[in-house]
Amino acid sequence: MMFLKNEIKVVLKNLLGTYLPYVLMVEIIKAEISEALARKFRKKAMEIYGYRKGAIKAALEDLLKRFVASGGVDWKLLRGCIKSEFTSVELQHRMWRGID
Questions:
Q1: Angstrom distance (rounded) from CA 56 to CA 24
Q2: Is residue 24 part of a domain?
Q3: pLDDT of 37-71, one tens digit each?
Q4: Within 13 Å of residue 80, how many CA atoms lie on the same side as its CB?
Q5: How far apart are CA 62 and CA 32, in angstroms?
Q6: In a domain, 61, yes or no
Q7: How many CA atoms lie within 13 Å of 94's alpha carbon, on the beta-carbon side?
């Protein structure tokens, strides 16, 4: 067992170029999404990454990496798209209350 741990450390050191401790740090992110979206995401993830353990994790990591690497959003492009006498906050409140 000790030989295996040392072998893993050497492989990781060669791959990443730095010394890593025994435990790799991970972060848990929890979010609530609609059931339909979750079902579609799981289906697509398994089609791309295979029907095996870790497919959802791999797909989500890839998605988050792409999102972070994509850069910022240019919100200025959206300014003036909605013609209304209400502010954006007022429009949100009206939508939540179901007012037309």
A1: 19
A2: yes
A3: 999 999 999 999 999 988 999 999 998 888 888 77
A4: 2
A5: 19
A6: yes
A7: 10
Does some domain include residue 81? no
- Amino acid, res. 54: G
Contacts of 44 (CB under 8 A, 6+ apart): 59
**Structural domain boundaries, residue 10:** 2-70
Tokens representing 11 are 């492989």
Residue 10 reports pLDDT greater than 70: no
CB 17 within 8 A of CB 32: no
pLDDT at 39: 94
Distance (Å, rounded) from C-alpha 45 to C-alpha 55?
6
Which whole-number Å values give the CA distances from 58 to 13, 55, 76, in the listed order?
A: 22, 5, 33
Retrieve residue 32's tokens: 């609530």
